[in-house]
Fold this protein.
Amino acid sequence: MIGDVLLLALILEASCAPAPGLVDVDSPGAHDDMDHAKLVRSAGAIAPSFVAMAEAGMRHVGPVCELLEKVRSIGLEAEARMYQATGGINTHKGAIFSLGLIAASAGYVLTRRQRLDRFKVTEGVKAITRGIVERDLLGLSRSKAGPGHLSHGERIYMTHGLTGARGEAELGFPTVVGHGLPALEKALKCGLSLNDAMVHSLISIMAYLDDTCVVHRSSLETLEQEVKPRARMALAKGGMFTGDGRKSILLMDKEFVSLGISPGGSGDLLGVTLALHFLPYLELPFLTREAGTSSG
């Protein structure tokens, strides 16, 4: 059930439109090597790994931080399946990391017979990743800085000090909890369609996230002078709630595509947002019995 929710989150994230610079159901965005069909195929290929990560969380005994290496090991297998399904294209590497942590934390929370609310799941992610930035990034040596040794995330940390997906996870996905989820749920409560609510949530994430995918593909200046300001301007105009906001988002999409700007980190966090939104709806028999209701 957890794996199904995460697969749904990935497919929905890939489908909402307009998604400025990103692949969506209507456009390949700023990418010339992927499209919606390829993202859906990739999501299906890696979905069993989310099940495995949830099971690892359920079966884990010992300090919760030791779950991280299990998640990473399963994640490497997921990446191999992703590359096989996409012909060597990196469609979901960031999502494998972030949603894999969500899966492991959700499984771990279940062993405590607790509901899968956003706070318990994100607290679990914080516990699993405690110290990851210090271990993986703060200890990087300048002598390791050759292009064949550093990952994109490590290189960006060395150059700009941005902690990327690791920092976001270790803090319990603050951009999701503080911006993505409130925007999504307000939009749904106010009657926007799921598609429009997802776009509104995505723009809210883009407005605040230090998106290292933008920095890698473009520059830090592009992030700070184009992506964040344009997203905040669209929100100031009402985002998906108003005609002016929608026009601003459509223009963002057109210009980001022409400039090759792809906020992939924001897309990954929209997937996390959707996962955290849907996970509490899972009906778990042992929990509903304890609450005195039917398990359905």
In short: Residues 288-296 have pLDDT under 50 and may be disordered.
